[in-house]
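Sanity check record (used in CI):
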Amino acid sequence: MKSPLSAARLRRALPTGRRAVAASVVVVLLAAVVGWAVWPDRPGFRTESAMLGVRSGPGGDEPVDLDTTFYLPRAASADRKVPAVLLAHGFGGTKDSVRADAEDLVGQGYAVLTWTARGFGRSGGQIHLDSPDYEVRDAQRLLDWLAARPDVRTDAAGDPRVGVVGGSYGGGLALLLAAQDPRVDAIVPIITWNDLSRAFLPENTGKPATEGVFKKGWAGIFFGGGGSAGSGPAGLSGNSAAAGPEGAPASAGAPSPRPGGGPGSGSSRAPGAAADPSCGRFAADVCAAYLRIATTGRADQAAVDLLRRSSPADVLGRIKAPALLVQGEADTLFPLAEADANARGIAAAGTPVRVAWFTGGHDGGSGPTSDSDRVKFLTVQWLDHYVKGTGAAPGDDFTFSRIAGFDALDRGLVATGYRTADYPGVTGDARREVPVDGPAQPVANPPNGNPAAISAIPFAGSLGSLLDGVAGDVPGQHARFESAPLTGAVDVVGAPTVTVRAASATGEAVLFAKLYDVDPAGAATLPDGLVAPIRLTGLPATIDAAQPVQVTLPAIVRRVEAGHRLRVVLATADQAYTTPVAPAVYTVAVDGAVSLPTVAATPIPTTATVWRWVLVGLLAAIVIGLVVVVAVVRRRHRRQDDSVHPEYAGIPLAVRNLRKEYADGFVAVSRVDFEVHPGQVMGLLGPNGAGKTTTLRVLMGLTQPTAGEIYVFGHRLVPGSPVLSRIGALVEGPGFLPHLSGLDNLRAYWRATGRPWADAHFDEALEIAGLGDSVHRRTKNYSHGMRQRLAIAQAMLGLPELLVLDEPTDGLDPPQIAEMRRVLQRYATDGRAVLVSSHLLAEVEQTCTHAVVVNKGRIVASGPVEEIVGESPSTLFEVTDQAAARAVLSRFDAVQVLTADDAGGLVVDTNGTARSEVVAELVRAGIGVDRVVPRRRLEDAFLALVGENSRGSGDR
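Expected output for ABC-2 type transport system ATP-binding protein:
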């Protein structure tokens, strides 16, 4: 029977498959380059992360802290409000599970609020399984927060313009929130449930959940994933698959999120651990229900009622937000029938609904790229129309897909999409009857359900073709009924049905019905590992007295080729389910035929149908694109050359408010601000992990900053900026072609710059390297020190105006270090400058004119080296005769000798006596004075600034 969903045709862009990418790569690259050149300052986004305190619970007064991140397009403001998306993660995940989806959606112009659901990650509270009183009310408070944002579009006071997207656990939340809060404007629930009790206690003859067969495998993973504060299995995260135009995934193209004044305020206390280790962070009633079901294998009515409270099944009629329901065909947790029930319930209330099936799911991931692209397109198309208010109505076409084979380029799976105007549900448009034969057969139920057949393992999908005859259907524990070879192919789309009979001396039996596709060679495939558990009661002792029972098999999408046979299997045990403990023998039979649902659908056009048009337009696009690219890039370069910050025009390097935060939230550089002026040798100092290397990597364009600006001679530093040619660098160690000599490596490097040979100054660079004849040897035979010297010479090719060196003396011997000291001091002349990072503080003290001290990502001191070292009450006198010097110094009343060393040095506290007077007295006594320096060294100042036990922040 057809659903009440009305027919509509989707006008849609053609998906982009991998073959199209290979064929039209030039066109795509040209379009990307043109776009980048024309809009050099592409809009990005900013993020705000915080612990948000909300109140929920049955009375709405129980506090909980939620870990949130808010993504906002940079162009959004109070004058330019944007619609919002509430993006929920899957069970066992956190807000980071949907980070990529959030970045895709914010790139489409949406403000996106993500959060870690209560009971997971850093959020507080306990897990109530998407309870309307807890998780749903939490989400309502998030809607309140969105409505209060000045940059989020609203429909009325307190009513944000918002869509809700989520996968699995997040998908259930989307449905329940839309039923409870009319402010939701559209929803996209993905791979989620209709009735949680039926999902975990399925029974495919129509019995209530109290008679269902416990899905222990998935239930155990759920409770394992919620048993601790950390995230659970990745496959439960249920990422939402949001993207751009079909066939082209959206890309935010923006920096990684960074913390800062996030949604609202709330305490940042860590979530507490549950007292009962068997419950983890689950609420007591949820845990108790699970323990009862897991212990007995049966659900009582109280447990079913609790699961139903967390199910959309009873509230679908209250959903007024247009719903795009996306469900996976490879899903033994929430099969296609769950989305079907949701679609029918929502449509019955007159709410627009669209259903899309794809080849992934909890067991199949996101499916092939071509299939996931289709789902991404449908998601954004739905949100754009119903939330953003752009684009034509998507309609309610039903789309599904099927694995079509392998890609010729990378051997990856390829899916073909299909569509039809009417949603046929799992019953199909029509039915194809295929007779199956076989006598009634006895089957044994093993004690304690062991050994058991393995049809599917959570996240692993179907194992039928791999385990058949090994650990699949166990001999003696299953019965087979087969058809004749099919005379023509059959496209199955929906839930097949079959009529079975069973007899048991105990009066009941638990069976698992399966439908295999058997090829002419006898290899059997169980589509996506899907089985239909059934519990039969009131059975007679003999099969002749057994009554027929119709079993609805799991909905599938599969093409059964001509010559293949269908095999119906009735098994007594399955590893994924709980079965009766007591051993028993049943007799089973299959009557008549397997009824296969079919759908009259048309293929969604792929790139193969437009291949000739791509070829026709390719040459024209290349010619036109090259002309446009050359013209625009030249204009862009001229704009860059003219864009000089007047304040920094004469300064080799100015770093302003630099910040670098990585995707996992680690902040390597928090706030770094300094300048390097002409003639300076600037030392960048700090303990391991302070942020030195990260600062240099950002400076060289090896990584993008989260915030802040860098100017080189007034030019803002961006990837590909021409001003980079004025910088020479050695960062993160040298890299050379091992089969080339040192000289050839230098020549190859310079050729790659495209600059004239005369500008290279090879002789000066080679003199600096000091490799002698070794410069003609292959670099694979170089020692570490030789490679380091060659790398320094490469950095100095062309005598760049700013030289950036990371640990330049690494691998050099003492004479080479001394020479390097002199080279750097000579280099910083004629308007040139040097920035050097080193952990050898004595060398920095002797080499550098200025220093910046960084600790834990922040500057703790900067300025001339002598100012950082500061004054000292003690002085080091290096003399030719220590004993004689002691005698002379003893004549001074205020002078005291503190320590002496083996190298002829005396550390003296002059106590106000002028050093010149002390030196004069020593010289008059005939004692040679080689050096007089303040006793306090840079190392002493450094340790005073950062602490002797400082380890920085874990630099990257």
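The chain has four domains: 43-423, 431-603, 646-868, 871-935. If this sentence no longer matches the regenerated tokens, the check is flagged for review.
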